[in-house]
Structures are given as C-alpha cells and as structure tokens.
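Lecture notes, unit on binding sites. The following record was shown on slide 14. It pairs a sequence with molybdate ion.
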Amino acid sequence: MNAPPRQPPLPLEQAQARLIALAPRLPIDHRATAEALGHYLAAPLVATRTQPATALSAMDGYALRSADLPGPWTVVGESAAGHPFAGTIAPGQAVRISTGAAMPAGADCVLLQEDCARDGAALALTGTPPQPPSRHIRPAGMDFAAQDPLLPTGTRLGAAQIALAIAAGHGHVPVCRRLRLAVIDSGDELASAGHALQSHQIPASNGPMLAAMAAALPVDVQRIGPVPDRLDALAAALDSAREADIVVTSGGASVGDHDLVRPALEAVGARIDFWRVAIKPGKPLLVGQRSAEGRAAPQVILGLPGNPASAYVTAHLFMLPLLRAALGAAQPLPSPLHMPLAQPMPAGGGRTEFLRGHWDGVSVTLDPLQDSGAIAPIARANCLVQREAGAAMQPEGSKVPIYLLEFGGFA
Ligand SMILES: Nc1nc2c(c(=O)[nH]1)N[C@H]1C(S)=C(S)[C@@H](COP(=O)(O)OP(=O)(O)OC[C@H]3O[C@@H](n4cnc5c(N)ncnc54)[C@H](O)[C@@H]3O)O[C@H]1N2
Ligand code: MOO
C-alpha cells in the first residue's frame, strides 16, 4: 500500500484561513429579536425609527422657556412619561415634567425641581438655572435617526445589541438558522460519564467539553460515542452524523496503529483538505469535507487530537472559529490581548505554542504543568499564552499575546 504523500504541518494562520474558507454558510432565517441571543446578523441593522422620536426631559422638574429666566412662572399642566402636555407653553408659563417625558411645544429648558420652589401654581427660581439652558433635554434623534446604519453584518447579538434592534423597530432580525454540530468521542479506552471504570479506562471528557464550548453559540449538538477504535465503528459514527453541518471528532488523529479517523473519513467518501498544523499542543489536527445528496454545502469534518489540552486548545483555535464563520461572524478568529509576564518565559521550541496560563488582571503566570494530556491545568487556566516557534527566552514583564478563555480560572 502506498503511504499518502506527507506534507509538512501547515503554519497556524494558513491552516485557520483554509478551514474558515470551508465553513458551510447556513440558510438565513428571520428570528424574533428577543430569541436571537448569540446569533450573528446576516444583514446590516438599519433604524426604522428615530430615538427619541421627540425631545424628552432627562430630569424631573419644570419645562419652560429659557427667555423667561429667572422667572417667576405659573404652572399650567404636566408632561409625564407616556402622557405628553397637549398645549403650547406661553411666556411666563411652566409645565411639571418627569424624566423621559416629552418636552411641551414652546419649552426649551428644564429647571430641576431641586433648583426651584413651588407654591400651588406659582413657581420661583431658588437655585442655579441650567447652563446651557438645554442641558437636561434629550433632543429628537439623539440616540439614532430612522435610516441610520446601526450594526454591520456579522455582529454578534448580545443583550445590548438585542436592546438596540428592538428600540430601532426590529421585531425580527435576519440571522442564520441554528447550526447542527455532531461531536464524536473515539477511543477504546473511553467510557461514558457516570459508568464504572476499570483501570485501563478513562471517562470520555472531550465530548462534553467540546459541546460545552459550543453552547454559547446557536448550535444544536449531537453527541456520538464513545466509539471504539475500529474502522467500521468510526465509519458508522460518521454515517450517523450525516445530517450535521459540522462534525468534530476527538482522538485517533495521530499516527498510531489505532488512529483511524483519517482512514474512516476516506472510507465514508470524505476528501481530506489538510492534516497537521505546526502548533503545540494540537499538531495532528485533521480537516476534511464530504458532500451528500440534498445538502446545500459540503459537511466539514474537523478531527481534533485526543489529548484533552490539545482538544481544548484546537477547539479554541479551530472549532469555535469554524462555528462562528458558518454562523456568519464578521470576525471568527479570537484576538489576543498583550499582557506582561509575571515570570520569565522559557525559549520556544519548533512549533507555535499555546501555554495554559492565568492572568490576574495585572500579569500572566504560566501553569507549571503543560502536558497536553493534563486536564487540571486547562480547568485552572483563564488564558492561553502564545509563544512563537524559536522565540528567545522572555524576561519577566515582557508583553506576550494571550487569549482569554470563557469561564477560565477559579473566578
Ligand atoms: N509517534 C508519534 N506519536 C504521537 C504523535 C506523533 O507525532 N508521533 N503525536 C502526538 C501528539 S502531538 C498528540 S496530540 C497525540 C494525539 O493523538 P490522537 O489524536 O491520535 O489521540 P489518541 O491517541 O486517540 O488519544 C490521545 C490521548 O487522549 C486521550 N483521549 C482521547 N479521547 C479522549 C476523550 N474523548 N476524552 C478524554 N481523553 C481522551 C486518550 O486516552 C489518550 O491518552 O498523539 C501523540 N502521539
Ligand atoms: O500536539 Mo500534541 O497536541 O502536543 O499533544
């Protein structure tokens, strides 16, 4: 049998760009805005209304004409939030006004109630008038005006973006449909969580970890496995994942006799796009694609290494960016912060590394245990620290690129 030509591992950025270019674009759906949390806008958000639609008071007090300062005035009515004053203010008149209430016609000034005294309908200035007189007025369109572009395509909808879309008049927003992700644990040594273990077994922790990482995105996860190290079993697992937009496997991606993800992919007719990336941990990462009848876009299969830290790091660098790209994110890749080291960082090796670390808000400490098979360090880390291949030793205080991890550390 001819061995496949062995390409050198791809540089990280090249591998990420190739994977993102394969991301299946999902059909667009119009979802109720209040239910679109975590989705990405599939079109720019444009205001359909003006906010505020009319000038409002920002404080509780009295609306009046600044030309009449320093008073006195006669209070002729009230403007409360949702209940505007119907008339027009004439010279010498004032209207009781509350925060968020419409400015009456003719008024151009709000006097704080703390700066005046009222006796029946008589109102007198006791403090300092506002400077400028319009200080406590929110003009019409202060926030946005109808037709204003508010958010670009690819913006993630969090709480504030949902508030803006609702305020801008969008009861529904265009977003992709939810993504279908299949996560396959593979390895003869794996047992499902909760099962009694023999000494040669370990709990299958990667699948739940990867599903949890995807949970913040609009993704429905199908968990498969643990699947034994047999070609037919892996091919059957891949077959049961045929409806998924994206399949993520963990384990069996390396060069051992029982590393069968690659042959299984070939057995189910997938095309391997690339295998191996020059990063540590995570080198044996595998990317393939398969087309199927009735499928608009080929399914992407991402084979992550089995070592838990390798799976965790590659899920941050590849799985989440792939999911975000498929969901229409403008910026699918994570961006680093640059933070000072609390300790010297030893020289780099032959691959770009992602060390498990802890940022305490001031500086970054590297975890003493960097074995890619260790789970405790990924659970206490709140950041990944990037060290370039061949980097010289970096002294304490040097700024290094770090990637913050959600739910990281003991916080
Ligand atoms: N001769 C070589 N050996 C290895 C190489 C190499 O280049 N030459 N690469 C090493 C690197 S780097 C990595 S990373 C690992 C990855 O191997 P696999 O992706 O084939 O993973 P497995 O061998 O199946 O498992 C590795 C390790 O992880 C544990 N594991 C697997 N799945 C899970 C899971 N779902 N939950 C928890 N733990 C899991 C598994 O028990 C093993 O301990 O290969 C090196 N070898
Ligand atoms: O690249 Mo492997 O992921 O070092 O352990």
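Take-home: The helical segments are 12-22, 159-167, 206-214, 231-240, 261-267, 308-326, 376-380.
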